[in-house]
Write a structure and sequence with these properties.
Layout: E1 10-17, E2 20-27, E3 30-38, E4 48-57, E5 62-66, E6 73-76, H1 77-80, H2 87-90, E7 121-128, E8 137-139, E9 144-145, E10 149-152, E11 158-160, H3 167-183, E12 189-192, H4 201-224, E13 229-232, H5 237-244, E14 250-256, H6 258-271, E15 279-282, H7 288-291, H8 294-300, E16 305-307, E17 313-318, E18 322-328, H9 338-360, E19 364-369, H10 376-390, E20 397-399, E21 407-412, H11 419-423, H12 439-457, E22 462-466, H13 468-474, H14 478-485, E23 492-496, E24 505-509
Parallel strand pairs: 1-14, 6-8, 11-12, 14-15, 18-19, 22-23
Antiparallel strand pairs: 1-2, 2-3, 4-5, 4-7, 4-13, 5-6, 7-8, 9-10, 10-12, 16-17, 17-18, 19-21, 20-21, 22-24
Length: 510
Amino acid sequence: MRPGGGLVRKDILIDSVPGEVRIALLEDDMLAEVFVERAGARQAAGAIFKGRVRKVLPGMQSAFVDIGLERDAFLYVEDAAAGAEDIDRIVAGDPPADEPRPPDASRPRVPIQDLVREGQDIVVQVTKDPIATKGARITANVTLPGRYLVYLPGVAHIGVSRRIEDAAERDRLRDLVRDLTETLRLAGGFIVRTAAEGLSADDCASDARYLSGLWEEIHRRAESSQAPATLHREVGAVAKILRDVFHPNVSEVLVDGDGMYREAVEFTERMQPALVPRIRVHERPPSLFEKRGVQPQLERALRPRVWLKSGGHIVINQTEALVAIDVNTGKYVGRRTFEETILRTNLEAVREVVRQIRLRDLGGIIVVDFIDMEEGSSKQEVIQALQQELRRDRSKSRMLQLSEFGLVEITRQRTKPSLERLLCVTCPNCGGAGRIKSPDTLYFEILREARKIVDGEGAPEVLVRLHPMMKEALLPRCESLAAALGVGVERLRIREDPALRYDQWSVLPS
């Protein structure tokens, strides 16, 4: 729903070239989510491995497991025991179930050293892709997502997605799946996904049989494979989006390329044939992302500053520990009171903040610094708006209340690298700091180095080599530089060198 009512138009765009597939989810023609898959670099999240425990760390209540990736995966004690009670945490790709089993407070947590041992083989599933220097996060609580159900082989639990709000429908689906589990004599449990609303018993049974059969195949591979070994990979990006996002509320799926169009149609015919007519092939030129204005939005999503329509802006900074988002009034001065100006800016920022969180796939701890508000009603309005926008996010998140300093902390599920980490590398010039030395700083560095040459070597001339842009900044100050060195301007030679970085320079006797 749009703020103030009305349905949001949703479109899926699939753009492909040899070696890369890009998928965009548009909401009212605004880029809401983007997915990129490149040949040879498929994400590990959701994959199931037979791994070998390399090291157990009692002090950290965790273990490192070799699953065949570049770095050992990380297994925390709460993820080590199949049948853990925290169902919400282990199910990815859909809102939490409504009835996670309550933890048994009387039972002490089993230490990691009693659950796994070094050299032990163990079947695990990746819950978070490797990020930067961190290995993948894994769990022994394997889950298998289907179109309508998520299968939990090790947990005897039946749950329903919270986004199915009708109480009668929730009860019907829960009873349907429970009866089905007993009739088919299926071990484990299921989470009913949002797409299952109105689902028939036959469709539900078909999904359940497929998932249980898939688990049996994975189990057979585990018995016949030597660790480390890959037992199961999640479907590719196109199939995953069509399975998880292509619902009846999506207006159309536009596909750039005949081959990818056929793949999308074939998959949809198996999963939900009624939606096949909504898939259309895009005729070039121009490219699909250019025609729908996606490419400029994608470029802006890699910049720290995002402008709001009012003239205000938000600044997004990612660090190793958290993501900081700062809201500013910028050019917006309002029309009435100062409090109203701040409130309008914060409310406009709320929608853009959540859109950028989804688009950039920001995860972990996110701290939003809203502009300070005086009135309690203003603060409550901002919080309610933020809660409403976060409901549109498919990833699980938890939000704390607004602090007295105007800060809101959000923790959001992270399963893969953010858009910035996916599409960018560390700048070789600034080393990832995002800042370089100013012309003034470089001027005084050059002055000090040149003084050593003039005072120590008595060279007849001094040669300064600079980046072309830095040369333009330094030329107007040649006279002051020569005067500071105590030499005539004719003894100071400035040369540009395009091979140098912007903040690189050299000073030589000549």
